[in-house]
Amino acid sequence: MKEAAYSIAAFDVDLGIPPAISLTLNYEHTIPEEDHKKIMTTSDDNRLLSVVLRCLFKTDAIYTSLQMGNFKFVSVTIHLGLIPDIRLKFAHNNES
């Protein structure tokens, strides 16, 4: 995940019906869009990793288009279950 500019903060497994996996990743920095394809090729043989990377790259596109005032993007939680979900977390930017 470091190549995709995120670090893993938490990993949850829901053993209910239906089962689900949640992955929380801390945002590190922006990477150029041309690097996305290079990173995706490293996950060709791992379906779960491919799904997570696609979610992260879509997240990059979404949060860069959002204007959140004094808040900065700090993490994303990807919930992979019957109904997939992506949750972005913003925190107050103390540097302002």
Task: Give helix % range.
Answer: 25-40%
Give the C-alpha Rg: 14 Å
Number of helices: 2
The tally of strands reads 4
Overall 3D geometry?
Answer: globular
Strand content: 35-45%
Count of folded domains: 1
How many strands, which pairing sense, and closed or not: the largest β-sheet?
Answer: 4 strands, antiparallel
Description:
The chain has 96 residues and is of the alpha+beta class. It contains two helices and four strands, in the order ββααββ. The protein has helices at residues 34-41, 47-65; strands at 6-14, 20-27, 71-80, 85-92. It has a four-stranded antiparallel beta sheet, covered by helices on one side. It starts with 5 loop residues before the first strand and ends with a strand.
Write a brief caption for the model.
It contains 2 helices and 4 strands, in the order ββααββ.
Descriptive keywords:
2 helices; 96 residues; alpha+beta
Write the layout of secondary structure elements.
Elements: E1 6-14, E2 20-27, H1 34-41, H2 47-65, E3 71-80, E4 85-92
Antiparallel strand pairs: 1-2, 2-3, 3-4
